[in-house]
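Cross-check.
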Amino acid sequence: MCNLYSNTTAQEAMRSLFDVSLELDRLGNAQPLPAIWPKYEAPVVRLDTEGRREMVMMHWGFLTPKTSAKTGKPLAPDAWNNARDDKRGSGLWRASFQSRRCLIPGSSFREAKGRAPATDFWFALAGEEERPPFAFAGLWRQGQPSVDGEAGQWVTHTMMTTEANDLVRPVHPTRMPVILAPEDYETWLTGTAEEAAALLRPYPAERMRIVREGIGMTSDPMS
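Predicted model, tokenized:
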């Protein structure tokens, strides 16, 4: 399960890659993000009410309420930062998969192996650039049902996952985030649910590489 990723792509480069016009860039002065954790804010590309691509900030992870088993008092809500491809029809994900799909800009993602201490592995795309930019397949929603306080009003995104490819499998045997090819961005955003489901597949291992490895590597700077 991916619970940490980075997006160190420059804002102008994101607009170019994801075909977002300047007036629909809602990020303000966005800074590189070498470590994005659940509940943190990060850039997301979605369709606005007129069907145009816009870049906005969203918190990572659909929120659900949580209470203490001992006291019954509310606790910090859970953040569901991953959505399994085979569970896309379940209640938490169904409506967003049908009509609120998005692109999540990224430059790498981390998976951890082992315990006490775990070894961190950062995965990125292969290419001439140090961290070629890409997009994870995402879902989003406005407001968090039954979650009180400011967090209940958050706009959140979650990341689709699928079977691990040959590069990721030795680190995380079962799952990896869905990475979309640029030619599939439009289908993911505007296609039918059936067309979108066909894109939920492992990214080719030969087009990826491990860019950082070690204990305590909980961020992925460009250098």
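Residues 11-17 form the longest helix (7 residues). The domain at 5-207 is CATH 3.90.1680.10 (hypothetical protein yedk fold). Passed to J.P. for a second look.
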